[in-house]
Structure formats: structure tokens, C-alpha cells
Write a structure and sequence with these properties.
The chain has 252 residues and is mainly alpha-helical. It contains 14 helices and 2 strands. The chain has a two-stranded antiparallel ribbon. A hairpin with a 3-residue loop joins strand 1 and strand 2. Helix 8 packs antiparallel against helix 10. The relative contact order is 0.08. The C terminus is likely disordered. Belongs to the terpene synthase family. It comes from Panicum virgatum. Keywords: Lyase, Magnesium, Metal-binding.
């Protein structure tokens, strides 16, 4: 993890760092190569004018994962919920995974937009919401693995009650979701209306994946049904000239 972080920090000058293992070499070259190709050629070059912002998203992810690994190795327990969330949100990887897609197929993202406070706040709140939704579904497995989880972290505040801790986590999710929605519907927000809507769409996908189980890791039947609806079910013409998949609409 230290080697990977150092490589991403150097980015174009990564040869100065070198690779400590073949695994690190494969991972870094996949990140660096795909980012460079996506941002420097074809129609995507119009959408993302600076590949360095994507590199920063990967760096946040790598640093967060390294911090979580150190917590597990040393048995460190965050002293506060705030300490946990500052690491857990970037380590979740939402920015690197979901937002890279927006650079390629979403609304045009200028340097001014991606550096704006509105953009950063929307990214933060959708990250908090989805990470904590994940925590609610994975705390048992992560406890067995010796990992930190918001539910396990908050339980001692409530006399060890897991259910009370889960209620507190849900209240944080609700507050972050409200703030995200406020930014999504607000006029004058940095970027375009379609960009604001995309952040809300990302949250909805996260809610779908984690509302009942860990749909990302378990490939739940509901996740598979939604994927099939998007890919295989024919679009239907609705009154008013709207096109959509009825089954997909019901599930999302």
C-alpha cells in the first residue's frame, strides 16, 4: 500500500519510485494506463480536461485503504466517529469508481466545476451515505475480520447495543441524504442540472445495493434482476413521450 500510494503521488514521474512487487506493478499500471487513455484521446478528452483530478481520486482511495489496513494490523480503534468517517469515505472508493464514469459519459466537467465547493460537498455527502449504508450490511463480517465499522464503533456509546448503534448510523445517513438532495435541487449550484442529477443517481444505486444486504459483494437476486432489466428488457414508450423500462423503474 505504501508503494502504491507513492506511485500515485508521483503519477507521471512514477518511474522514480519503482515497484516493490508484480502485484503493485499490475494495479498501478491499470490505474495509470486507463486514466491516461480515457482523458487524453477520443471524445472523453473534451469532457475531462485534466487527468490529475482523477489521479487525486485514486490517491484518496489508496491512502484511505492504507489507513484502514494500518488500523487492522495494529488493532487501532478510531477515537471518534469523525476520525473514522474521514478515512472510511475515501477508502470506500466511490470517487475513483463512480465519478470516473462521469468524466467519460456524463456532462462536461471543467476544472472550475470539479474544484468547486458544491461539487466537493455533493461528492462528500453521497460518499458518506453509501459508505454507511454499506456498514449497516457488513458489520458482522468486518467484526470477524478484525476491521473497524461505524456500527461497531458506535455500539459502546449505547451500552453495546448494536440496534441502537444502527439507528444512529441511519440518522447520519438521513442527514447526509437531505443535504445531498438540497444541493441537487438548488439553483445556482456549480455545474449543470444534469450533473446534480447524476450525483443523486449515484446515491440511488448505492441505496439499491445496500438497503437490504451487501448487494455489491453477494450479487443478490435483486441486484441481478435490476441489472437484467437495464441490459435486457426492451424499452417501452410511455404516455407523454417518455422512454423507460417499467421493471427497472419500479426497482430503482
Amino acid at each position: 500500500m505504501e508503494n502504491l500510494v507513492a506511485l500515485i503521488e508521483k503519477w507521471d514521474a512514477h518511474e522514480e519510485v519503482g515497484f516493490c512487487s508484480e502485484s503493485v506493478k499490475i494495479v498501478f499500471r491499470a490505474i495509470y494506463g486507463s486514466t491516461s487513455r480515457a482523458t487524453c484521446s477520443g471524445p472523453s478528452s473534451r469532457r475531462c480536461r485534466s487527468p490529475h483530478h482523477i489521479a487525486e481520486l485514486w490517491l484518496d482511495l489508496a491512502r484511505g485503504m492504507m489507513a484502514e489496513a494500518e488500523w487492522t494490523l495494529t488493532g487501532h480503534v478510531p477515537s471518534s466517529f469523525e476520525e473514522y468517517i474521514e478515512v472510511a469515505v475515501p477508502a470506500f472508493g466511490l470517487g475513483a469508481i463512480a465519478l470516473t464514469t462521469l468524466y467519460l459519459v456524463g456532462p462536461e466537467l471543467t476544472e472550475e466545476v470539479v474544484r468547486s465547493r458544491d461539487y466537493e460537498e455533493m461528492l462528500w455527502h453521497v460518499g458518506v451515505s453509501t459508505r454507511l449504508l454499506n456498514d449497516l450490511q457488513t458489520y458482522k463480517r468486518e467484526e470477524e475480520q478484525g476491521k473497524t465499522n461505524s456500527v461497531l464503533l458506535l455500539a459502546p456509546r449505547h451500552g453495546g447495543s448494536i440496534e441502537a448503534a444502527k439507528r444512529e448510523v441511519r440518522s447520519v445517513i438521513a442527514a447526509s441524504r437531505r443535504e445531498l438532495l438540497r444541493l441537487v435541487v438548488r439553483d445556482g449550484c456549480a455545474g449543470t442540472r444534469s450533473l446534480q442529477q447524476e450525483f443523486w443517481n449515484i446515491y440511488k444505486v448505492g441505496h439499491l445495493l445496500y438497503s437490504e444486504e451487501d448487494g455489491w459483494c453477494t450479487s443478490s437476486s435483486e441486484t441481478i434482476r435490476v441489472g437484467n432489466a437495464v441490459v435486457h428488457e426492451p424499452l417501452s414508450w410511455r404516455p407523454g413521450g417518455k422512454i423507460g423500462s417499467p421493471a427497472a423503474a419500479r426497482r430503482v
